[in-house]
Amino acid sequence: MRNIVVVATFALCLSAAEKFGKPLMLAQPTPVATVLASPDQYVGKTVQVKGKVTEVCQMMGCWLQIQDGEKALRFKVKDGEIMFPKNAAGRAAVAEGVLKKIELNHQQAIAWAKHEAEERGQKFDAEKIKSGITIYQIQGSGAVLD
């Protein structure tokens, strides 16, 4: 009987969710597709999303890419404030923060794409960037990873 209790306790510890940053305050998540369908409606507001982590910043653990169905949003925290496990891809996440709209001119878009390529260890070709871009991401305050 004691062995069963030990095994059950160990299994519970393995499946326990990890909490990062501040506690989540909203009662339920908004689907990523809903946020991205009309993002300007959510800009500057606190949103909560739920989905699968598809990527993690491999440099500092400062962002997660959270996918819900076919749509994904980046959940970014201040560098060094929260560090997500670099092996978190594949885990379920609930994340909360303020939706930000980032408008980049052509030169800024090139710098952004170059940085993204460096983070992913990919080749970078500035010629592929033809104009400025608009990026929506959540400035994260808290997250829970299962």
Task: Write up what this structure looks like.
The chain has helices at residues 2-15, 32-37, 106-120, and strands spanning 18-21, 46-56, 63-68, 71-76, 92-104, 133-145. It contains three helices and six strands; from the N terminus they run αβαββββαβ. It has one domain: OB fold (Dihydrolipoamide Acetyltransferase, E2P), CATH 2.40.50. By secondary structure, the protein is an alpha+beta fold. The chain has a five-stranded mixed barrel. Helices cover 24% and strands 36% of the residues.
Instruction: Give the integer mean of the pLDDT values.
Output: 89
Number of helices: 3
Q: H/E element string?
A: HEHEEEEHE
Give the C-alpha Rg. Answer: 18 Å
SSE diagram, text form:
Layout: H1 2-15, E1 18-21, H2 32-37, E2 46-56, E3 63-68, E4 71-76, E5 92-104, H3 106-120, E6 133-145
Parallel strand pairs: 4-6
Antiparallel strand pairs: 1-6, 2-3, 2-5, 3-4, 5-6
Quick tags:
single chain, 146 residues, alpha+beta, OB fold (Dihydrolipoamide Acetyltransferase, E2P), 6 strands, 24% helix, globular
Summarize it:
The protein has 146 residues and is of the alpha+beta class.
